[in-house]
Design goal:
about 190 residues, about 0% strand, single chain, Fumarate Reductase Cytochrome B subunit, mainly alpha, binds protoporphyrin IX containing FE
Length: about 190
């Protein structure tokens, strides 16, 4: 990390890999979550596809939770490269705020999903195994927790879109080095 920071002010290979794997996983999770919940709750279509979407969503969300926990430990131990020097103080503050909100939601959203399926209970994954239960069953509480899960997931998606907008603004309009911190191969 230190060597890379001094060379190009970009994030380390580990930080970049964790960032891009998470970004792709979250972008897959949101449409899958909306589609499965629409098929199940609105169309009442509980066929093989709906069940597979639920299993895939739960499994991938569970993996995102542990990936984020590992990523946060790595981040706290290794830090980030110094901010892009051309940023104004409020741009640095706003980007740090959004980054920490993203980290927070990357933990809270899957934890609420896991608590929700524990309460329901609906812990099965592809009829192969069950996720560990975090609580005893309470279906009414499950509905409430999963409702909050869905809303916070959409907030995570909205913040990620703002974050991407900012990255593209820096790259295409400001033409500074912000996007290259996560994609050092860019020209
Ligand atoms: C970062 C990880 C996750 C993201 C981004 C995410 C996103 C979403 C989204 C967008 C919805 C649809 C909400 C709606 O249409 O109202 C949803 C629903 C759901 N999620 Fe997740 N989710 C994640 C992790 C998890 C985990 C770990 C579990 C369980 C282990 C889970 C279980 C569920 C369930 C059961 C629903 C359906 C709720 C219903 O039928 O009303 N999710 N999720
Ligand atoms: C769901 C999708 C995404 C999530 C959750 C996410 C999350 C994050 C987080 C938490 C950081 C802070 C890293 C740290 O300091 O430890 C970060 C940095 C960054 N992300 Fe993303 N990201 C996503 C998608 C993207 C995409 C698609 C782009 C590019 C178009 C992008 C570009 C960047 C850049 C350039 C940085 C470094 C900013 C800086 O430190 O100046 N991200 N991202």
């Amino acid at each position: 990390m230190r060597k890379e920071t001094m060379m190009g002010r970009s994030y380390s290979v580990t930080a970049r890999t964790l960032h891009w794997v998470t970004a792709i996983a979250v972008f897959a999770m949101i449409p899958v979550g909306v589609t499965m919940s629409y098929r199940g709750n609105v169309l009442n279509l509980w066929d093989g596809l709906t069940n597979a979407l639920y299993s895939g969503h739960k499994l991938m969300g569970f993996l995102i939770l542990w990936l984020t926990a590992g990523r946060l430990i790595y981040r706290l131990l290794h830090g980030a490269p110094p901010d892009e020097p051309t940023l104004k103080w409020w741009e640095k503050a706003a980007s740090h705020l959004v980054h920490w909100l993203l980290y927070g939601l990357l933990l809270v959203v899957p934890v609420l999903g896991w608590i929700g399926v524990s309460l329901y209970p609906a812990l099965g994954i592809f009829d192969l195994f069950n996720l560990p239960a975090l609580t005893s069953p309470d279906e009414a509480a499950a509905q409430r927790v999963l409702g909050i899960h869905g809303k916070l997931a959409l907030l995570l998606g909205a913040l990620a879109l703002m974050h991407i907008g900012a990255a593209l603004f820096h790259h295409l309009i400001r033409r500074d080095g912000v996007l290259r911190r996560m994609l050092p191969g860019l020209r």
